[in-house]
Design goal:
This protein is mostly helical. It has a single domain (2-267), classed as Orthogonal Bundle (Lysozyme). It contains twelve helices and four strands. It has a four-stranded mixed beta sheet, with helices on one face. Strand 1 (32-36) and strand 2 (42-45) form a beta hairpin. It comes from Collimonas arenae. Residues 101-210 form the Transglycosylase SLT domain. InterPro entries: Lysozyme-like_dom_sf, Transglyc_AS, Transglycosylase_SLT_dom_1. Belongs to the transglycosylase Slt family.
Length: 294
C-alpha cells in the first residue's frame, strides 16, 4: 500500500508540474531567434543578436507534438513548417532514436517526456557525444561529480566520463535529477529549470527565486519554449515525432545567451550539485545510498 501511494504521489507531482509548466510557458512570452550556419549547426537566442538571427518562435505562439508530424494535427503556416529552424528541432533524427529511452525515463521518474526533450534540446542538441567546456557530458549534459553523487562509479572497464556517453545512463541520470529538483521545488517549474542550469544551491541562495544571472534567466525561457514545442497533444503520453532520414547533418544546438560572460564562476557549472545552505523548506538532495543501476 505504501508503495502504491508513493507511485500515486509521484505521478500526481508530475501532473502538477505539467500544469505549472503550461501556465509558466504562457506567462514567459519569450521570443526565440535563431539561424542555421553553413555547417548545419543551429544557433538560438532570446534576443536578435545580429542580422543572422531571425524570429523563429513568438512567446505567445502555441505548438504541440501533433503539429510536428507531417500527416497529423492542424496544418502549420507553410512559412513556419518549411523553416530550417523548425525542421532542426522537430525532425532531428535523434528525437526518434531516443524516444523509447526518454519515455521509459519519464515513466520511471514521473516526468513529462516533453520536459526531457526540451532540456535535451537546450543542453546538447540531442548529441550523445557532446562535452561542454566545463566537462558536462552527453545528451543531458551531466557533470561527472553529479553522476558520482547519484551512485554512478567508474570501474576497470570504463571511467565515469565514458559511462556518461551511454544514452540510457545519461537520460536516466538527468531525469532523476529533474525529479529530485521537482520534489525540492513543487509547482515551481521555473526553479526546477533554473536549478538544472545553475545548481539548486544558487536558487536557494537567492531565497528560492530564479537567480539574477542573464544565462540562467534566458535558459529558463528557452527550455519553457522548447517544452511548448514538444508538449504532448491532447494528453498523449509519447511525443510521436516522425524523425527524418534526411537530417543526418543536424548538429548541436548552440544557445547564444546574452550576458553569459557575466555569470559568476561559482555557479556556472550546471548540475554540479553544490552543497547548499541549510534551508528547512527545501532540504538538500541527498547522495545516493546505493550504486546507480545502469
Amino acid at each position: 500500500m505504501n508503495k502504491l501511494l508513493h507511485h500515486l504521489g509521484q505521478h500526481l507531482a508530475g501532473f502538477l508540474l505539467t500544469l505549472a509548466l503550461l501556465g509558466a510557458v504562457g506567462s514567459a512570452r519569450a521570443d526565440i531567434y535563431g539561424y542555421i550556419d553553413a555547417d548545419g549547426a543551429g544557433h538560438f537566442s532570446t534576443e536578435k543578436l545580429d542580422n543572422r538571427y531571425q524570429l523563429f518562435m513568438r512567446g505567445d505562439a502555441a505548438f504541440d507534438s501533433s503539429q510536428l508530424m507531417a500527416d497529423k494535427g492542424t496544418p502549420l503556416n507553410p512559412k513556419l513548417r518549411d523553416s530550417p529552424l523548425f525542421r532542426y528541432l522537430s525532425q532531428h533524427p535523434n528525437l526518434k532514436k531516443y524516444e523509447a529511452l526518454v519515455n521509459q525515463a519519464a515513466r520511471e521518474f514521473a516526468l513529462e517526456p516533453a520536459l526531457l526533450n526540451a532540456v535535451m534540446a537546450a543542453e546538447s542538441g540531442f548529441n550523445p557525444g557532446a562535452v561542454s567546456p566545463k566537462g558536462a557530458i552527453g545528451l543531458m549534459q551531466i557533470m561527472p561529480t553529479t553522476a558520482e553523487r547519484y551512485g554512478l562509479t567508474g570501474d576497470k572497464k570504463k571511467p565515469v566520463e565514458q559511462k556518461l556517453t551511454d544514452p540510457r545512463t545519461n537520460i536516466r541520470l538527468g531525469a532523476r535529477y529533474l525529479r529530485d529538483l521537482r520534489n525540492m521545488f513543487p509547482s515551481r517549474p521555473d526553479l526546477v529549470i533554473a536549478s538544472y542550469n545553475a545548481g539548486e544551491g544558487a536558487v536557494q541562495k537567492y531565497n528560492n527565486q530564479v537567480p539574477p544571472f542573464p544565462e540562467t534567466r534566458s535558459y529558463v525561457q528557452l527550455v519553457r519554449q522548447f517544452y511548448q514545442l514538444y508538449k504532448p497533444a491532447f494528453g498523449e503520453i509519447t511525443m510521436g515525432s516522425s524523425g527524418s532520414n534526411g537530417s543526418g547533418n543536424l548538429k548541436r544546438v548552440h544557445l547564444v545567451i546574452p550576458g553569459r560572460s557575466n555569470m559568476p564562476p561559482p555557479v556556472t557549472e550546471a548540475s554540479t550539485l553544490p552543497n547548499p545552505p541549510a534551508i528547512s523548506s527545501t532540504p538538500a538532495i541527498p547522495a545516493a545510498a546505493t550504486p546507480f543501476n545502469e
